[in-house]
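Open question from group meeting: does this chain pack into something compact, or does most of it stay loose? Before anyone orders reagents, we agreed to write out a predicted structure and look at it together. Recording both the input and the output here so the notebook holds the full record.
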Amino acid sequence: MAHSEGSPELGSADVPAALRFAHQVAGLRSLGSTAETEAEEGQKQEIESLELIFEESLQILSPEGERPVLFQLQVPVAVDDWVELLIETGDGQVPAGAVQALPPALLRVALPPHYPLEGPSAPVLVVEVPHLGAAATELESHLSVESGVFDLVEQLKEELAVPSRLVLRQEMFSEDPMQAALRLLSHDQHVRNERRQQETQVCPVCFDELQGSRGVFLSCGHFGCRDCLQQMATLHTSEADVTALRCPVPDCRECFDMGVLRQLLGSDSELLQKYEELSLKHCIDTMEDVVYCPRCDLEGGGNRVPCIQDEDHMACCEVCGFAFCGKCRSAYHPGATCTSADDRMEALEARAAGKGREAAAARSELLTLRHLAKTTKNCPKCNMGIEKTDGCSKVCCTNCKIYFCWRCGKTITGYDHFATSECRLFDDEEIRRWNQQVHHIDKAQARAQEARFLAQFIDPAQMWQQARECPRCRAAVVRDGKNNHLRCYACMTQFCAKCFQILQKGKAGEHFNKLGSCPQHSD
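C-alpha cells returned:
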C-alpha cells in the first residue's frame, strides 16, 4: 500500500480499515488543499466517468470542492459456484455451511490535490473485504492507481478470486469466526431471496406464471401464488385440519411456518388465533404421555384438561385432583388390568337403567361407545379413534398421518400388504356400495380389477409362486392368500389352483367338498 507523507505508521492487521483510512487522509490534508486547475479538471472528469460506470455503487464522501476528494466504491466479489465455509479450530477445520454469494468488497480512495499529475504523495487506498477480515490488508500492497481508478477496480476484482473452500481463522477477525460465517450465510440468503423475488415463478396449484414478489415463498423454498395459498390456509384452518397446511409440491409437503401463515391469514386475524389453538391441540394429542381428564369433561362440554401419565399409566388431574388410568380412563387401579370394553359397557348399562342425571350421562356414553365400537378403530401408533366412511382398507390417521390396514390394524406404507396377505383391499360392503353407484360392475369383476391392481406390488419371485396359469386362456392369475378357488380376470373362468380343473359356475364348492378332492385352502 502507498502511504502519503505524514501519515502515522499503523499496524494494518490490528487497526480497522475505516480508522486507517482516516489517519492517512489526515496526512493528505496536511499537505494543503490547493490544486492546480489541470489536476482539478482531471479529477472532476474521472469522478464523472466513475459515476456513469458504477452508478449507485460509488459514493462521494467529501463535500463538493473540498480537497482531498474522498469516495468509496463497492466492488462485487465474483463466485463461480458454491463456496464451502470452514472454521479453523484447535481440532481442525469445521464446516459452517456453503454460499453462492459473498458481500462486496469496499474500496476507499482519497485523491491528493495534485492527482492525476505527479506530486509529493500517492492516493490513499484502503480495502475492506468481509470474508477476508484483516487478511484484506495484503491486497492493498498489490494495488496501484497509476492507470486510473477504473483499472484499479479491475485489478481488485482479479485479486478477489474466491477458492472453492474458504477457511475462516481467528486471526482474521476481531470476533469469533463463527459470527463472521453467520454474517456471510445471512448475506447469501438475502441475495438469493432478492433474486428469486425478481424471477418468474410458477404456482404449483393453478400453474400461473408470475413474478416472485407477487407470491409467497415457503420455508422449504417453494413458491405459490398468494390467492391459492391464502384459500388453502383459510379452508384448512376453518375446517380444523391444520396438518393439511403443507407445501403443495407433492415431493415436499413441508409444513407452513408461522411467518407464512401471518402473511396469508393476517397477524391479528381470528383465523390465525384459531390456527394457534388447533396447532397446540394437535401437538398435545400427538404426545404419547398426555391424556385428558375424564372427570373434568364428564358432561361432554369440551373442558378437556391435559394430564401427564407416568410409565404405569397413572395420571392425576391438577384441576379436580382425580387420579385415573391413562389407558382405560377409569379410576387408577394399581396392579389390576384395565376393564375390557364389554365390562365397561355392562357397567354403563347398569348405571343407565337408573334415573337421574348420572343415569342420563351413562346412557349417552353408552350410545357413544356402541357407535364407536361399530364404526371406528384405533390408530396403531397414536391410539386415536379413526372412522372409515368409504374407500379401500388402506387408512390414513388424521392425527399422526401414518397409514394402516383397516382389517388387521397393521402399520403399512404402500399396497404390497394387500397383495401378500389375506387382507382385502376392498371388502364386500364397499363393492356393494360401488356397484350401486356404477350399476355395471359385479363382485367378480371388482375382484378381478383388484387382483390386477395388486399384482404390481408383488415381488416378481413371490408373484411367480402365487400365480397360476388359467387352463383356458393361459393368463396368469394370482392366488388370493391360500385360497385355491381362482377366477381368471381375463376370461372369467373358475378353476382349481391345485389340479387346474375348470369348475362349473355355481358348483365350485362340490369340487372342494368331495372326499379326497383338493382342499379349498392350502399353502
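Observations to bring back to the group:
Confidence is low (pLDDT under 50) at residues 1-14.
The longest strand covers residues 92-99.
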